[in-house]
Each structure stands twice: as C-alpha cells, then as structure tokens.
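Design job #97: recover the sequence.
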C-alpha cells in the first residue's frame, strides 16, 4: 500500500518541496534467488516465501543472495503472491527502492505542487497518448506545451547512476519520440528519479546499450532537457529530496 508524503517547504516557492512514497505493512526478509523477472524467493520468518518483483530490470548488482530486502504486504488476499519486493540494501550505498511505479507517482506529486520550473500549470495529463507512443506526462503552462518521460534509476557505479540496467527498446524509442516532439516545438524532458541515496547524476549506460547512448545524444541535440531527482531512501519510504537540471 502506498500513500503520498510531503516534506517541509518554504511558501515563497524558491525552495524545493520534498515529495515521495510511504509504504505501510512492511516486513524485512533475506533474498534467496530470482527464478524469473517477475518473482523472487526470500526467507521470511524462517520460511521460504515467493514474492512479486515490481521491476523488470535485471537488478543483478542489487539482488544478491543474502541481501536484506523489504516486502510490502498486499491488500488482495486472492493474489498468488502476498508480498511485493520494494527495496534492497546495497553494501556501501544503503537502501535502494526498486518499485518501478514509485518514480512516476513521485513526479506526479511534484508536478501537482506546481514547482517553479513549471509555474501555473493549467493542464496535466499522465499517460498521455502522443503520436505512436504514450508519454508519462503532458502539461501546459500558458503557451508552453511540455512532455516529460520518467525513468527510475537503480544502478550505481562509483557514485554515479547509470540507465538502463537492462536492454530497453522501449526506452530507446521514447528518446527518439521526444527528439521528434522537440523538433516540432514541444518542451521536452527526460526525468531520472534516482531511487538510491547519495547519487545526483545519471549517465547513459553505453556499455550495456550503445543504442540507448546514441538515442540519448540525439535527444539532447534535438533540444530535450534532462532532469535529475536525487532521493533519500529508507525501508518504508522513497523521498525526492531535490532537483538538478542537466547541463
């Protein structure tokens, strides 16, 4: 179960308002293995439990045997798996949130607060159908027509975030679609929610996906802007703690 939370803020809007996700009904467990991208086996209260993973990325640097993980109890008693795996502890880094739904919800709450970058929002539509693809957010601020695609980053190497952690044809296609929209006059952004502590920037993972790197470069050259959302993470919470606009 999720609910929105807000941190302290100043009313003059020159300060960033923290937004994030709060999880109820959590339990700690030990990760055992991941038979496929949808489920994992964990040790919970001395027994092996099959749980749902709300992230189709590899997460191979995170989901290691014996790692501490956080489970969220579902409200649906008819579901085959009664827990969702929401976070994992990485030695030397801290808690990493791997709930793929949390980044979009956190950005939606941030937009609902009318941040200084997007003052006077007159229209906001999540999951907006644009051409042949669906963009995470479309909004209007007066004459400004804005598209935002959100990506959650969970891969950290030497203090830097990298995306993606698994091949993503969908992510590549989205970048080219944003580039095409920017060429038509739309104000376009790719927003990285960095779902781990202490990381403030994300680079394209060209080692894993050279094509994503090419698409990222093409998008930037077309005028697509990059937003980074550093986060603080605890077992029961993902909190956006700031915003950095890419160079």
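Job complete. Output follows.
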């Amino acid at each position: 179960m999720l609910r929105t939370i807000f941190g302290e803020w100043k009313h003059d809007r020159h300060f960033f308002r923290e937004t994030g996700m709060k999880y109820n009904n959590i339990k700690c467990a030990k990760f055992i293995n991941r038979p496929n991208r949808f489920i994992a086996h964990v040790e919970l209260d001395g027994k092996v439990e099959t749980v749902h993973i709300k992230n189709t990325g590899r997460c191979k640097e995170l989901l290691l045997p014996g790692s501490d993980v956080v489970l969220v109890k579902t409200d649906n008693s008819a579901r085959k798996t009664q827990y969702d795996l929401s976070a994992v502890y990485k030695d030397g880094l801290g808690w990493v949130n791997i709930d793929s739904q949390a980044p979009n919800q956190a950005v939606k709450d941030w937009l609902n607060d009318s941040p200084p970058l997007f003052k006077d929002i007159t229209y906001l539509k999540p999951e907006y159908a644009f051409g042949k693809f669906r963009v995470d957010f479309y909004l209007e601020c007066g004459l400004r027509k804005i598209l935002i695609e959100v990506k959650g980053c969970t891969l950290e190497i030497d203090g830097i975030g990298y995306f993606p952690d698994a091949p993503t044809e969908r992510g590549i296609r989205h970048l080219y679609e944003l580039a095409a929209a920017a060429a038509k006059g739309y104000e376009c952004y790719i927003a990285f929610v960095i779902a781990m502590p202490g990381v403030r920037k994300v680079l394209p993972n060209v080692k894993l996906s050279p094509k994503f790197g090419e698409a990222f470069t093409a998008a930037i050259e077309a005028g697509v802007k990059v937003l980074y959302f550093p986060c603080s993470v605890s077992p029961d919470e993902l909190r956006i703690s700031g915003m950095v606009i890419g160079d």
